[in-house]
Amino acid sequence: MNNKTYLYLFLDISSIIIPFISGFHKKINLHKKFPFIFIANLIVMIPFIIWDYIFVGAKIWGFNDKYTVGINILNLPIEEYLFFICIPFACVFTHLALWKVLKISKLTSNIHLLPLLLILMASIFFIFQSKIYTKLVGFVTLISSLFTLFLYRTNIIKFAKEFAISYLILLFPFLIV
User: Fold this and answer.
1) Most CB atoms within 10 A, among 25, 63, 99, 112?
2) Are 24 and 30 within 8 A, CB to CB?
3) Which value, in Å, is the radius of gyration of the alpha carbons in the chain?
């Protein structure tokens, strides 16, 4: 086996190692929430695994065997399942670090980035009409962005503003990849 075989696994592990270790920070105390985060991740994982299974089965997209260890469950590499545990965990950590450690609330009192994100997602949706996967992801992101904007504007839930801002910040790495 060459080093490429472990690339996806390496990316999964690297995305979680710092949040896992730093989760014990006294201001974050993420370790006290490990069981709840794990259960939530498993529940949220289900529709995404179904989504992956459908798109891989339809040959709309797939996984390169050169970058996975070769263990598959329902035609999906084990690394994909780990992705849906590692990345949400890292996102929860990032959210808590932004608000409890970095205290970004002082920097975000007049944030108006969400309308820009909506324009970006709508643009992606219309520009990539011939690419079904990109169009669908753009559409889903647009809908979730609208929902986030609704939560942010109506202040229905206590943490809506924090969620909306964290969501925006965390979307940038996903848009890059």
Assistant:
1) 99
2) yes
3) 18
Chain centre distance of CA 92: 10
Indicate the pairing of strand 72-73 with strand 76-77: antiparallel
CA atoms within 13 A on the CB side of 52: 19
Question: What are the pLDDT tens digits along the chain (177 aa)?
Answer: 566 788 999 999 999 999 999 888 888 888 888 899 999 999 989 999 999 999 999 998 899 999 999 999 999 999 999 999 999 999 999 988 888 887 776 665 555 666 766 777 677 767 777 777 777 777 787 788 778 777 777 777 667 777 777 877 887 777 665
Other C-beta atoms lying within 10 Å of the C-beta of residue 68: 20
**Range 132-137, long-range pairs (CB < 8 A, 24+ positions):** 132/60, 133/55, 133/60, 133/61
How many residues appear in the chain?
177
Cα maximum dimension of the chain:
53
* Nearest-angstrom CA–CA distance, 115 and 46: 30
Place of tokens 């409890």: 100
pLDDT of residue 163: 78
Distance CA 29, CA 96 (A): 9
Sign of CA dihedral 9, 10, 16, 20: positive
